[in-house]
Amino acid sequence: GAGVSQSPSNKVTEKGKDVELRCDPISGHTALYWYRQSLGQGLEFLIYFQGNSAPDKSGLPSDRFSAERTGGSVSTLTIQRTQQEDSAVYLCASSLLRAQYFGPGTRLLVL
Amino acid sequence: TQLLEQSPQFLSIQEGENLTVYCNSSSVFSSLQWYRQEPGEGPVLLVTVVTGGEVKKLKRLTFQFGDARKDSSLHITAAQPGDTGLYLCAGGDNAGNMLTFGGGTRLMVKP
């Protein structure tokens, strides 16, 4: 079956521009997570959606970061006024129970 | 704040050698998951352990959850080049929804 997909695969942008990253979770998965991973490092939690509940935004590093999940499915992570320190791989995962299934990530480079 | 520390951070060994990766915390977790991530891809779940003292084997990989559910280890027997990758441990909260990831162990197995 189809796994978690993310787009774009790679994004190069200029400092100060806004970017939108998309995540298509596995159909039927109620939970959706966004993480950030710096080169070769562990995962930094950003935001968590569970069903129709209010999202857990406790991991968002600044108010430049926001995310939406429409219709309990597709999610978009938006970074406004990008900074060079935002450069990283942004990973999305979906889950039905305990295990999380990850997409391939979006590699963001802010010049 | 729950933290998970992995050691070693980097490990380079020859094919056929054995190795152990450690994941330690001062916090108790309801479950412990191990993921493996290859370059350009998202992490893939290897195993979930939930009971203190639990041992699970997956071919040449042996996973152990500490009695107090604060630590875990991954042992690989007769490592192969295909085992190369980033190994991540992740501790689950009581609800089983949120994961705290360790910093990862980057393993390279040379032929």
Provide structural commentary.
The complex is a heterodimer of chains A (111) and B (111). In chain A, 33% of the residues are buried. Chain A is mainly β and 111 residues long. Chain A starts with a strand and ends with a strand. Chain A has strands at residues 5-7, 10-13, 19-24, 31-37, 43-50, 65-69, 75-79, 88-95, 100-102, 106-110. The mean pLDDT of chain A is 93. In chain B, the strands form two sheets. In chain B, strands 2, 4, 5, 9, 10 and 11 form a six-stranded mixed β-sheet that branches. A five-stranded antiparallel β-sheet of chain B has the order 1-3-8-7-6, with no helix packed on it. In chain B, strand 7 and strand 8 form a beta hairpin. The relative contact order of chain B is 0.33. Classes of the chains: A mainly beta (111), B mainly beta (111). At the A-B interface, strand 5, strand 8 and strand 9 of A face strand 4, strand 5, strand 9 and strand 10 of B.
